[in-house]
Write a structure and sequence with these properties.
Helices cover 43% and strands 15% of the residues. The chain is an alpha+beta fold and 271 residues long. The chain has a five-stranded antiparallel β-sheet with strand order 4-3-2-1-5. Strand 2 and strand 3 form a beta hairpin. Helix 1 (6-22) packs across helix 6, helix 6 (168-214) runs antiparallel to helix 8 and helix 7 (240-250) packs antiparallel against helix 8 (256-269). The longest helix has 47 residues, at 168-214. The two termini are 41 Å apart.
Length: 271
């Protein structure tokens, strides 16, 4: 397997992951687009079975529930996303966040944002719904103006439904192949990095030696990512640095031995 396989396996696996996650919430593909529902105003609220139930009290959720949060306090034209969007659409909307409930009180809930599922690793039941270490965590009151919270379901139940999805076995195969491809790519990157550092080693040494011979303010090593010597701006034109070094010799600023050594380093660097 080569790194190129990543281009085939990972996107395919990620597509399966998104399909599985989208299938967690009912949806009617015959519905008009959300834009049409909101702006044309011709439709009644969507059927309850396709919407995320509104969370208006801390008692509406429990620890380890997933919720979708829509904060529209900065919007010029607020609208009811839980009325006009299916749960699947609300999760996918760029203006919402998906979060996991980590604590509740009589009046508040504490949540931690999770990544909107879509990565090829996203539907591993062991990690689905887990938050990154640096994920935002905050406490809020459910029932305040211009903030809507919809319940997406209990995490354990969602994980069970993921594992029972008909595409889940295919995703597991893609996941395994993606892991292998990623490992192969990592090994290839490491090999390329090592080769590049081996290529740079004599050039770096030549740069450092030349800097000692003619002045370290005229040439320096650009670092492992640059991979080349960096010449002072006024001497960057082709042949200019070599002419400068010759001038040092002609004015006896450096002796013949130093000039010969400097010329050798210039040859190695292609300057």
């Amino acid at each position: 397997m080569t790194a190129e396989l990543i281009e085939d396996v990972r996107p395919w696996t990620a597509t399966l992951a998104r399909t599985i996650v989208a299938g967690l919430w009912d949806h009617d593909n015959d519905l008009p687009t959300p834009h049409g529902r909101v702006h044309e105003g011709r439709l009644p609220p969507l059927p309850a079975e396709v919407r995320a139930p509104a969370v208006t009290s801390a008692t509406d959720v429990a620890v380890d529930d997933l919720v979708v949060i829509f904060d529209q306090r900065r919007r010029v034209h607020p609208f009811d996303i839980l009325r006009f969007y299916t749960a699947r659409e609300a999760v996918a909307d760029r203006q919402t966040v998906v979060a996991r409930v980590t604590a509740t009180t009589a009046r508040t809930i504490t949540v931690t944002n999770i990544q909107v599922p879509g990565h090829w690793r996203a539907v591993d039941p062991a990690s689905f719904g887990e938050a990154a270490e640096d994920a935002p965590r905050y406490t809020l009151r459910p029932n305040i103006p211009n903030r809507q919270i919809g319940r997406l379901g209990a995490l354990d139940d969602l994980r069970r439904r993921i594992a029972a999805h008909p595409h889940y076995p295919d995703w597991k195969k893609g996941y395994a192949a993606s892991c292998r491809a990623e490992q192969t790519a990592a090994e290839e990157r490491h090999t390329r990095w090592q080769r590049e550092q081996e290529r740079q080693a004599p050039l770096r040494a030549a740069t450092q030696h030349l800097a000692l011979l003619i002045g370290d303010d005229l040439i320096s090593w650009g670092g492992p990512l640059v991979g080349n010597a960096v010449v002072a701006r006024d001497l960057r034109a082709p042949g200019r640095l070599r002419t400068y070094v010759a001038g040092l010799r002609n004015t006896e600023a450096i002796d013949d031995g130093t000039y010969t050594a400097a010329s050798k380093q210039l040859d190695l660097l292609g300057l």
